Amino acid sequence: MYPFLKQAQGPHRTSLSFFSGLLDYCFSEKSLQVIRIIHAQLVKGLLKSGQFEAANCLFDKMPVRDVVSWNTMISGYASYGFVNYALGLFLQMQNIWVRPNGYTFSILMSLVSCVYHGKQIHGSMIRSGADLSNVVIGNSLINMYGKLGLVDYTFGVVLTMKELDVISWNSLIWGCHRAGCQELALAQFYRMRTMKQLPDQFTISIVVSVCSNLRALNKGKQIFGFCFKVAFISNSIVSSAIIDLFSKCNRLEDSVQLFREQDRWDSALCNSMISSYKQHGFGDDAVQLFLLTMRKDLMPTEFTLSCLLSAVSKFFPSEQGSQIHSLVIKLGFELDAVVASSLVEMYTKIGSINDALIIFTNMGVRDLITWNTIMMGLTCNGRVSETMDIFEQLIREGTEPDRVTLCAVLLACNYGNFVDEGMIIFSSMENDFGIKPGEEHYAYIVEMLSRAGKLKEAMYVIETMPYAPSFIIWKSVICACSIHEDLRLTERLAKRMMEMEPQSSLPYLVLAQAYEVRGQWESMVRVRTAMKHKGVKEFTGYSWIGIKDHVYIFEADQLQHHGGKEIYLVLKLLVWEMEEAGYI
């Protein structure tokens, strides 16, 4: 008898006692096959209830551990997110020469998150003699390589398969779509049709999503017509994808019409419509639709709450965000990674960075999106030193950064004037993290060097970068030129920027200001006149403030129309009081 069986308490006591008695009987009858089954079921039950220590103890004491037992342990740890431990068990299994079966590999392939592990598992399948032409195993491989973005490998797997079913095609099209090869994904759909394979609703939803990413409205309409032909239009998954297509192609009115024509609402449909309203700036409509779904007893999903939080951070006062946060807690979604990430993003956008940090710290599982969100939020709220600390923590925990992570770090170095740190990270991106610097990374480095007055170094980076310098990159340099009084370089850059974006007012204004500072009034007037003749308009800035349920937006010089005189008098009074108190 095992010690933890004697200590069983509560509702599991009877079942454990039953199993222990049954084990005694089986030992007496020498029925090893039944003993194995009972052991496996006990292990499975303990893993499901999260009792990993007890499961390990029982697993270690099993007289014979066959492939089914190992699969149970690997699957149990995988279901709780302990991926590394599950992979470790697979290695132990191989070390004692237990041959994995198709189910073992299907579990492992669903866990893979890096190319190295994926290729290792594929190699292990080949060595173990797995039938790679089998449609189930082949589909798992296609799905794994599609998730990893290795499109060439997905086609390599397809070529080894004797037959393809609808799942094979769906996985192949989805893999191309996920890797950003949208035209290739469409080509596979047309190839699927030529081979007389009938698509299902998942095929159609993926293809419509491809059309959405391409903003290919005409192709999307053809798929829409096909949906009527095969009676898929009543399927909520397909309808949701088409609503999203219309929205992304700036046809919100068609999204609304299709939504209204639906006989029955579900979470998928409502989520698509809420997301569409949010994307087009109709935050109030998104919230109203959400309230309507609640009245119809349609419980919000993680995606619903994520959309709402995103809409609130853009269009509503912070009180609305706090209310949705309370709803998140009430519905028990506070530990969900997607919702928690959205809460972090919302609080960073409205400036409540301490609230964002509390949520981030309390999260059990953090994906890379969450790390990137808090780092970018800290940077944009001026807490650049903490951004660097978070980045170091991410590296210590073994999480691989991506392009966005390094954007957040380089932007922090830019804002914090951490020139040396920024150059070290930028120079080691490819060697340390396998990420080739993109145009956005170069833009942050050029701006960092320019703001630090290192114009020669900034120009050298521009001359050696593998991309043609964009308007944004020149913008960083020309603004620094005007500060550091390099008129000749300012004139040269202004001319180039005027050619790149003729309707941008920035080069004209910077050049005019440079002439004005030096007292070159004729040159200043000439630039202003040229700007007027070419119809270039100055960018109008605005600010906004939320009061109760309304957001008030003020454009530049518009304040006088909203009781501005009284506002300025109050501001003067406040400044006077601050001076008296010694704050100014």
TrEMBL record:
This is Pentatricopeptide repeat. The keyword Repeat applies. One of its GO terms (molecular function) is RNA binding. PPR repeats lie at residues 66-100, 165-199, 266-300, 367-401. PROSITE patterns: PPR. Keywords: Repeat. NCBIfam families: PPR. The keyword Mitochondrion does not apply. InterPro entries: E_motif, PPR_At4g14850-like_plant, PPR_rpt, TPR-like_helical_dom_sf. Pfam families: E_motif (PF20431), PPR (PF01535), PPR_2 (PF13041). GO terms for biological process: RNA modification.
